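Ticket #4471: structure output looks truncated?

Reporter: J.K.
Steps to reproduce: submitted the chain below (240 residues) through the standard prediction queue, then opened the result file.
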Amino acid sequence: MTFPQIKPQKGSEIVMTHIKQQIQAGTYLPGAKLPTVDQLAANFEVGRSTIREAMSALKAMGWVDIRHGGGTFVSLTLPSEEGDNSGSGRFFYQTESFQEVLEVRKFIEAGCASLAAERRTEEDLRLLEVTIQEMEAAIGDESLSEQADIRFHLTIARASHNSLFVSMMESLTDRLQESMKESRRLWFFAERASVELLIQEHKDIYEAIKLQHVKLAEDRVMQHILKVDRVVHKLDAGSR
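Returned output as attached by the reporter:
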């Protein structure tokens, strides 16, 4: 006779589940500000890192918005409970569709970066610098940060000076926006990453293009997207 393996819950998982249940019960309404990290740590009698980890998970699942320097708020639009399998670690509900977008992004964007490193002009570099500056200025505003992120990738496509690549990237704009949003959430949660670290990855891609290192630019873009791809596979496997 075989028995299922029972994994003990981490403190952050217990906190996450409790806060999620409070949101679902209406204790915290959409748009409401949650207690501070210090207050929650005192209430749950855990360390602040445990609270931050719980909040990162809730943000990844779309239950809360974390505003840099402004606190944590319940999302105005809450996730649908239909097919919610968050207890097993699945943070989104259209895995296959999301996976397909990632697969397309890997090959199109790696090709764009390769050609951009070979063909970029001074004006292309200036526009890439502008988008990085916009990302830095948008720290604390996730919506503006996402838009700057998308512009960075579209600017690389335009720097390839291949009209078909540009058309393909522009035709994917809507899907790309959703992919970016999910990618950022998953990457921040799984890697415990910061916005600053994400911006540094974009700077590294920019430097490879600026120095006309074709293979390095291609590799850095591919690794940038593969990080999220690995997280998707891990979470999808954990949900089965």
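Triage note (M.O.): checked the attachment and the full token line is present. The two ends are 21 Å apart (CA to CA).
Status: closed, working as intended.
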